[in-house]
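QA checklist item 7 of 12: single-chain prediction sanity check.
[x] sequence parsed
[x] length recorded as 218
[x] structure emitted
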Amino acid sequence: MVDELGRAICEGSLAPGAVLTVEELEASTGASRSVVRESARVLASLGLLRPTKRVGMVVLGEAEWNLFDGQVIRWRLDSAHRQRQMRELSEIRLAVEPEAARMAALRASPEICGRIVSAAGILWATGANGSNADFGEQDGCFHRLVLEASGNTMYARLTDVINESLRDRALVQLHDMPMDRADVQLHVDLAGFIQRRDGEAAAQCARQIIVRANGWAD
């Protein structure tokens, strides 16, 4: 029920201001009252619904949604608003990841640098021999390490947001297409720049990874 209602709200078939009642949802879905209430609680926590006494559950507009929640991102990616969500994910990556890479080169401990280099090696091997699903998972691990290595805890909290972008690229955009070796090599290059404490080169490399992933002109 959470998935069905969440998709409907993000798609827009349940418009902002629409009112849902427990009784209506019980009748239309066949779910128990406890399931309906728990589903409403989850959606309210994501900012999609607001329970109102003597009225019901009011559907909220996009401005109220937790747009950084992974589930909300996936619902938006599966909706008619997919292109907009992809653009917004790419723009936030471009705003954050190059600076995070630069800061990682300046702040990361030798141990963390080693972990980033190791993660890049695993990613390179996965790109050559693994599935796209495996690559997406390893790509997420690599980018998480770079964000955490920046020393900025607010950047690190964006890991789930960026992982949704990487997951969608690996599983949906590329699907069964082989990974571009040049794109994979850029991750190895980025790890090397961070290890060598070259902040500017790390930032430029991180930017190039994002630009190439989106087919933008740099």
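[x] summary fact logged: The chain is about 70% helix and 5% strand.
[ ] second reviewer sign-off
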